[in-house]
Structure formats: C-alpha cells, structure tokens
Here is the input.
Amino acid sequence: MRKFLQEFQAFISRGNVLDLAVAVITGAAFTNIVNSLIKDIVNPILGVLVGRPDFTNLFFVLKQPPEGFDGPWTYDALTKAGATVLGYGAFLTSVVQFLLMAFTVFWMIKVVTTLRVKLESEAVAKLSKLSSVLPGGKKEEEAQKEEKPAEPAPAPAPEPAPAVSAETTELLREIRDLLKASKSA
Here is the structure.
C-alpha cells in the first residue's frame, strides 16, 4: 500500500498532471464567462433581431400533453406534463454557445501568439544590436565563417575581457526583462 501511495504521489506531482488540473479548472471558469456572455449579452441582442429573447422556448409539440393540462405552453411545463416536445431552441442555444466558445478561444490564442511574436522580435532586435556592439559579435563571427582556412590555426591566447559600456549593460538588462516577461506571459 505504501508503494502504491508513493507512485500516486509521484504521478500527481508531475508537471503535466498539475498543468492539466490547472487547465481543467481554468476551463470551467472560462465556461462560466462564456455562458454569461451568451445569456446576458448575445441572447438579448439576437432576441431583438429574431424577436424572441429566449431560444429555449422554441419547440414543436409532437405529442400533445394529457387531457386536462391547463399549464403554460412552455418547453419545461410541457415536458413535465408528459408531452413529447422537439426542442430545437435548446439546440440552437448550444450551437451558439459552441461557436462563441470556439471564437473566443481562437481570439485569445491569436492575441497571445501576436504578443509572443512581438516580444520575440523585439528580443531578437535587441540581441542583434547587442552582438554588433560587443567584440566577437555577429559581424566578426560571419567573417570568420566566410574565411575558412585550409588548416586550423592554433588558438590564440585569450585576451582579457574588454570593459562593458553603460549602453551594453542597459541592453542586457532590457533583454533580461523581455525574456522574463515572455516567460510569465
């Protein structure tokens, strides 16, 4: 039993299981947001356009309720009374919910991807600027690649590191901050 509990603890504490748990919880909360968006914003707008604010009461009665039924002719009341009702309004509401959820997820992924690409391009621009400023940077490396000697030359003695300018230090700080921001996003 102890080994079983240890294996279970190892399984639960793995990163991907915890990520999945966070995703499920976030998804449930996000579903509530989309449901509210549909119920409180989209349905009234569509209701004004279509003429009905509530799609759940769009239905066809296939089998009449028992004789003596004098309740309201709503989907819920008819199904409770035993009538067979084809509720296409509930289906339309589910389709609208799905489309809104898919659009919202697409929009969120598009925004995050755009931000990530922008941050990465800024970091690359800063790195290229930095590499052109530092000794042994990009320009010197490209020149060395183009001049491939026939025989490898003996390695020169290491030179002392040059003093780093204030501009270089500032560029390095900006790159560090951009990388931190992109990891937390």
